[in-house]
Amino acid sequence: MIPLAIAAAILPVSVMASGPVLYGKIHFSLGSFDNGGSAAAGNEYKDTNLASNSSRVGVKGSEDLGNGLKVGYKIEWGISADGSNGDMGQRNRGITIGGGFGTIVLGRWDTPMKSLGYGTTGFFSDRYGDWHSLKGQGNSYIGGRHDNVVAYVSPNMSGVTAKFAYVLDADGSNGANKNDNNDNDAISSTVVYKNGPIFVGAGYTKVMMTSATNPEEETDWRIGGSYKMGTTKIGANYTSVSDGRGIASNDFKFWNIGASFGMGNNTIKAQYADKGEGVDGSDDGASLWSIGVDHKMSKRTTVYVDYGSLNNDAGSSLAFTAATGNESSIPSG
How many Cα atoms occupy the beta-carbon half-sphere of 172 within 13 Å? Predict the structure, then answer.
């Protein structure tokens, strides 16, 4: 069991220049970790640290080309607000070409599967309680950002929007050799319906990336949705992974369900997430529950306190992965 408590501030900033827009977000958190282990058993883990959670700075802009055609650009860098990692990490960057036909995106970008999972159906995005911590033993394509993305976003058709992305040389996106002459690509797609308080979506990913040690092509499915009633919101999603990371029979499911309730400037939220076992006998499942209270001090500033517990099965060593400067693996107590 790994409980935690966090107090943090999120301070987004947006500055309009004559043409481009300079924007950013600084997200600090002070976290305390305790896995319940003991020094005598050699499995004790206790830590308190200051972390940066997806802090960023970017520049974006667009130009109207006439005849309903518009070209846009975006260049975004990740920054280590607490100083524990290097600055200027690559986030979304590229160009967009939009018109009545929809939008074409070229560059390094979030896959449609990622956009379906983050924020839309979860309640602790970019925090320690983020349910994406449970995908650590899957493939990053379940919800990743990748190089060499060619994507299409359809127009909004009575609340329905479709996205399709093709990732060229997908193994290069994960740090492998981009000049290896291998056609290891990936596809990611979603269809969502959003109308008033209702949001529902479905996604599909296929990773055509194999090797001698990981010979299978991974496929992923996801469905998710949320519904808002006044200041109350409920949301859930379910993801099925087949041959995760190209490992034969590494088939597992993970899901989450949560809710939030607003009271003036305060929002109370809770979420439970669960990951099943992959390869039979691996005992690598895990579960995560989180509760928290947000207090909105202004349109641009929020402070919050969260508490959560991540419970690993015997064959799993997942950790809270929302922030930089933290351990990627924590021993079970």
Answer: 16
pLDDT tens by residue, 29-86: 888 888 777 778 777 778 888 888 889 999 999 999 999 999 999 999 998 887 777 6
Partners of 94 in beta bridges: 74, 107
Q: Which of 181, 185, 176 is nearest to 206 (CA)?
A: 185
Beta bridge partners of 202: 191, 223
Kindly report the pTM of this predicted structure.
0.85
322 vs 108 pLDDT, higher one: 108
Round to whole Å and give the CA distance between 303 and 319.
Answer: 23
Q: What is the spatial distance between Cα 294 and Cα 200, in angstroms, rounded to a whole number? A: 25
